[in-house]
Structure prediction request, 232 residues.
Amino acid sequence: MTEQVEYDTALILMCKRPDAGTSKQRVARTAGNDIAQALAGRLLDCALADLSRWRGPTAIAIADGTDSGWAQSMAEHHVVLGQKDGNLGERIESVTRQATDLAPRQILIGMDAPTLNHRYLMQIARALQVSDLAFGHAEDGGVVAMGCNGSWPSLRELSWSTPQLGAQLGEAAVANGQTVSWFSPLPDIDHQDQFEAIAEALRSDLRPTRQALRQWLLQQTRAAVRAHSQTI
Prediction:
């Protein structure tokens, strides 16, 4: 039976439309814009599947307001929110303020952590019953999910997209007098050389979007090995 905490917690996907030239630029540096865009599309499919599984309120928070029509076309029962201007911390703060009308607690996820699953998200939702904040560690030092029960500490000055982010979030919460729960690290995917490891991590994950991503990652890995062998 679905727990009440799921209904009382909004799950929000922070995302932007997959686009050659702007998506997954650290992947694009080695693999090219087309592969980076294709990866972003498959990661988006995974994140949308997680949103559709959630029984409580759900929302898609788009980075570019001109993409509202695109977001509405795939939103199903999800609310579409706009991210305000500013750095990622400012945008998270603005999205959370909008989402308080959906539920008293919110969990924010991105598109980069395909091993994230419903059980992990439920752990965060339960933690928010007793903690002000709850975070899922990323293996690279960042976070894969951010849960809020009330308000955030100031997020504007943090080092987003760096290995220091997780530690800074914890320090900001303590300085603000807030309690925090942390959950075990999951991998996110930022570089082409992670493709094979992520595919292996998804080996036993039977969710269709994850298996589709895994097969695509393996194809790209084999193609990269062939291309490399032809140059030596």
